[in-house]
Design brief:
Elements lengths: L8 E7 L2 E7 L6 E7 L5 H8 L33 E4 L10 E7 L2 E2 L5 E5 L1 E9 L4 E9 L4 E10 L7 E6 L2 E3 L6 E6 L7 E6 L3 E7 L12 E4 L9 E7 L5 E8 L2 E8 L6 E3 L4 E3 L3 E7 L1 H15 L10 E3 L1 H4 L5 H14 L3 E4 L29 H9 L3 E6 L3 E3 L3 H5 L18 E3 L5 H18 L3 E4 L18 H18 L4 E4 L9 H4 L4 E2 L7 H11 L9 E4 L13 H8 L3 E4 L8 H23 L1 E5 L8 E6 L5 E7 L8 E4 L9 E7 L12 H5 L11 E3 H7 L1 E4 L6 E8 L3
Parallel strand pairs: 1-7, 23-24, 23-32, 24-25, 25-28, 28-29, 29-30, 31-32
Antiparallel strand pairs: 1-2, 2-3, 4-11, 5-6, 5-8, 8-9, 9-10, 10-21, 10-22, 11-20, 12-19, 13-14, 13-16, 15-18, 16-17, 17-22, 18-19, 26-27, 33-34, 34-35, 35-40, 36-39, 37-38, 37-40
Helix pairs in contact: 4-5, 7-8, 10-11, 11-12
The structure holds alpha-D-galactopyranose.
The site of alpha-D-galactopyranose has 12 residues, from loops.
């Protein structure tokens, strides 16, 4: 409708239970007036409401807080982080944008108009005539309610004076009652340590200058009403979708709270010549009632794009922890035969197969089979694997080079460096300059050849080095931004040549997990640490962004190679179950009893993987140290659910009622379980537990109403610490 008003445009995007209300007034880029639960209002009401929003500074008022738009402008009085930071050799450093057009899903929205749409893309063109800067802002709400925005900045100057972009950080405004933050720290083998803290005035910033997402990356930042948890409280779950240098931040000032995020650009990294443009990464936000409904929007987004949710996840054997660098055909063929006997469907040959690679000091870059370990090449192994009915997968680290390699010796000018000398080594390696077209073409050709010649179904794509002092060879100017885009281009080109090829993103474990890489890959190596108790935490927290079928989840040796902690096979299998299930263990050492147990779990995974790949993730007990940690997947139609429960290491309670989220209130469910030998002394065991049967058994088993299980909960012993139980709930009344 067309309403002349002081505030020319009002846009209400809604999807499911979410509304995003934008106003665009007085030539300024739009502001998020409301991003929260769904609202209903007619156009007149929206216009009246929008009148409370204005652009201060212009009217000469002092001490009135600035109403920040999506790109707050210093030139109008904003004293926080400007939305666009750019300059021309020190001039034109304070953009003053004037909106020239707004479209909603491609339709022009004239001044004075209101648009109310079920999701959609809002595109705003704006320019600063004086500074010769042109800006395109996109704000998109997906049909499932995932909000994202990105901005491009173009140099419209005609002279030779470059426009240097220092940063573009949109402001996703949040209501001030979102007063608590959950973000994550981490380190190698210990990804995703949660930290909760209040929002305070100032900026809480999580920066990464590692050129990869980072093992310490927060991955997502949750900001919500105090006490939010998996299923309650309003939570905004935000994420910056790039794996290069980047920042996630929460900014609070007078009357203002927002998620800020973007790429961290190094000095001079983006210098735009006339007509050139910089496109920021997408910055995402998802509102939920509780973490899990916010997380579900990300899962849907990835499930629409990845191969993982469209193909049954093949149970995988990765041979790294079985042989490390010690490879030969007989051993690896033997592992393949044993894996096939267990029911494994994909076999991944890890690091150590290529020229000169007997440890991590040499060989990276020389992607031809090592003549000593593989005198006949890898084809006989690949054929053996396929002959056993499995897919063949291969480890590569295409962005990296050892100085001790033929590639580095032949092309010393292909290594990134910020000065004449090479940067410090990191795991004995350097970074291949993929911004160099020759190096790019070389590595694309090598990967293409490997995939074609060996019939590779899946690449495990590793990245074991931070991009330290990563400059363009020759000039030394920073190269992280260009390198990040070049890696995406490399993967995109490889995948367009091999549309069925799957890629696993690994970076010393979970060091590259973000929506930049995840839109091009099909699973992540969640961590180098397979200790089940640590993995339970990582599956939960990395799983806020990544759906279960994309989370590599391996059963390893009883004694964890990373933590030294011992856990039984049941615990290892039960905790790995709700992910992309696999094995990373020397299966030659399996007893016949362990082989039988592992085979049963593999068969159970095969039976239930469709639910795991399509179900909605729920959790419980995340922040209660006395409660079991529950994580589950529930079928979209509520017909079935699988939960893993891990008893706490120390609890004040011998028994707890554990609520099973996601079940339908008016349905009845049969309970099946895969349980450890004991959860506590027999006198603590509730009768339902004693009468449950194995997963998939239709024998007499207890059944209860969904509302009882969801609201009152199942009585569960917590006496024995660190025990893992898998529960399957099957609807029986439909
Ligand atoms: C990294 C990965 C491991 C393994 C080794 C091989 O550390 O995270 O899974 O592939 O590299 O060198």
């Amino acid at each position: 409708m067309n309403i002349r008003m002081e505030f020319p445009r009002v846009i209400h995007l809604f999807a499911e239970d979410v509304s995003v209300l934008l106003t665009q007034a007085a030539g300024a880029p739009p502001a998020i007036v409301h991003w929260g639960p769904r609202i209903n209002a007619d156009d007149h009401e929206l216009v009246d409401y929008a009148r409370t929003s204005f652009r201060p500074g212009i009217g000469n008022q002092s001490d009135v807080p600035y109403e920040a738009g999506i790109l707050p402008e210093h030139s109008y009085g904003w004293s926080g982080l400007p939305g666009i930071r750019a300059h021309r050799t020190g001039a034109a450093w304070s953009p003053r944008l004037e909106v020239s057009s707004v479209t909603v899903d491609g339709e022009t929205l004239a001044e004075g108009c209101v648009a109310q749409c079920p999701g959609g893309l809002v595109a705003i063109s704006a320019h600063d005539e004086w500074a010769k800067i042109h800006v395109e802002i996109e704000i998109d709400l997906s049909p499932r309610g995932l909000l994202r925005t990105r901005t491009s900045v173009r140099n419209d100057g005609t002279g030779s004076n470059h426009l240097e972009v220092i940063g573009v950080d949109p402001s996703l405004r949040l209501p001030l009652d979102a007063r608590e933050i959950l973000d994550f720290s981490g380190r190698w083998g210990t990804e995703k340590i949660p930290q909760r803290h209040p929002v305070v005035v100032g900026t809480h910033a999580r920066e990464s200058r590692r050129g990869r997402t980072g093992l310490d990356a927060t991955t997502v930042v949750a900001i919500g009403t105090p006490g939010f948890d998996a299923g309650s409280g309003r939570v905004w779950l935000c994420h910056v979708g790039i794996g290069g240098n980047h920042e996630h931040a929460v900014e609070r000032s007078d009357g203002y709270l927002a998620f800020r995020g973007g790429e961290l650009l190094l000095p001079g990294e983006v210098r735009l010549a006339s007509g050139e443009r910089y496109v920021s990464p997408w910055v995402y936000g998802s509102l939920g009632i509780g973490l899990d409904s916010a997380s579900a929007r990300y899962h849907d987004f990835l499930r629409d794009r990845s191969l993982s949710s469209h193909r049954p996840r093949p149970v995988t054997l990765n041979v790294w922890e079985a042989v490390y660098f010690d490879q030969d055909f007989e051993t690896l063929a033997d592992l393949a035969t044993r894996a096939a006997d267990l029911g494994v469907e994909r076999y991944v040959l890890d690091d150590g197969w290529f020229q000169g690679r007997s440890d991590d000091t040499a060989g990276l870059g020389d992607w031809i089979p090592d003549e000593k370990s593989w005198p006949d090449g890898l084809a006989p192994l690949a054929e053996h694997v396929r002959g056993l009915g499995m897919e063949f997968g291969l480890w590569v680290e295409p962005e990296m080079v050892n100085e001790d390699s033929d590639l580095a010796r032949a092309h010393p000018d292909w290594l990134l460096r910020a000065r004449a000398e090479l940067p410090p080594r990191f795991r004995n390696q350097q970074v291949l300059d993929l911004t160099n077209p020759e190096a790019f073409a070389h590595i694309l050709g090598v990967l293409d050849g490997l995939v074609s010649d060996l019939g590779v179904a899946c690449l495990k794509w590793d990245h074991n080095r931070d991009l330290i002092d990563a400059g363009h060879p020759g000039t030394g100017t920073p190269a992280v931004h260009d390198q990040t885009l070049a890696v995406y281009e490399l993967i995109d080109q490889l995948r367009s040549r091999h549309p069925g090829l799957e890629i696993e993103s690994c970076a010393s474990g979970g060091g590259r997990v973000d929506l930049g890489i995840l839109q091009r890959t099909d699973r992540v190596h969640t961590s180098d640490n397979q200790d089940p108790l640590d993995r339970a935490r990582m599956l939960r927290w990395t799983g806020l962004l990544v759906p279960p079928e994309m989370l590599g989840s391996h059963v390893a040796s009883a004694v964890s190679s990373v933590t030294g902690r011992t856990s039984d096979l049941h615990t290892r299998c039960a905790i790995a179950f709700l992910g992309h299930f696999g094995i990373e263990w020397d299966i030659r050492e399996l007893s016949s009893e362990d082989s039988a147990t592992l085979s049963r779990w593999i068969a159970a995974y095969q039976q239930h993987r469709e639910l795991i790949s399509t179900g909605r993730v729920v959790a419980n007990g995340d922040f209660d140290p006395d409660a079991p940690a529950l994580r589950g997947v529930v079928a979209a139609d509520g017909s079935e659910a699988i939960y893993t429960l891990v008893t706490p290491p120390l609890s004040a309670d011998s028994r707890r009622r554990v609520r099973l989220p996601g079940l339908l209130s008016d349905a009845s469910y049969r309970i099946e379980s895969a349980r450890p030998e004991s959860l506590g002394p027999w006198w603590l065991n509730p009768s339902w537990l004693d009468s449950t049967s194995d997963l998939d058994s239709v024998a007499e088993a207890p059944s209860y109403s969904g509302s009882l299980l969801r609201e009152a909960g199942l009585d569960l012993p917590t006496f024995h610490p660190d025990r893992a139980l898998v529960l399957r709930l099957v609807r029986i009344d439909a």
